[in-house]
Amino acid sequence: MQGNRSFRVSNELKKEISCILKQSIRDPRLDCLITISEIDVSKDLSYAKVFITFIQDNINEYEDKKKIKEILKILKNASGYIRFLISKRLNMRIIPFLSFYYDDSFFKGYKISKIIDNAINE
């Protein structure tokens, strides 16, 4: 039963944090589309790891690593405010502490796909 509850909580958190990032966080340094790929909630529901990815045009790999660090720092600083907004939107006794992590699995999959496509074309 505990796994089912943490699954439901992570789905609700994913929806709410996505809405909050789109509507309530007005930081001009967040000039890209941030997507939440997964949320991993602890068994006692007091901690949540939020895995994000973002899309930005015309950026090289060095700038990308710099941008990732900057966005994660901004979200870490805003995590208390995000928790406050979640507490207003959801009827939960415990609002988990949020930790943000960059999820690069999409881009790794894209690179592998490009390598396979190039190998097939040759």
State the end-to-end distance: 51 Å
Poorly predicted regions: none
Total domains, how many?
Answer: 1
For the largest beta-sheet, the strand count, sense and barrel status come to: 3 strands, mixed
Reading off the top of the CATH hierarchy, the class is best stated as Alpha Beta
Keywords for this entry:
single chain; 122 residues; alpha+beta; GMP Synthetase, Chain A, domain 3; three-stranded mixed sheet; 3 strands; globular
Could you walk me through the main structural features you see in this protein, from its secondary elements to its overall organization?
This protein is of the alpha+beta class and 122 residues long. 56% of the residues lie in helices and 20% in strands. It has 3 helices and 3 strands; from the N terminus they run H-E-E-H-E-H. It has helices at residues 2-23, 61-89, 105-121, and strands at residues 33-41, 47-55, 97-102. It has a 3-stranded mixed sheet with strand order 1-2-3, covered by helices on one side. Helix 1 packs across helix 2 (61-89).
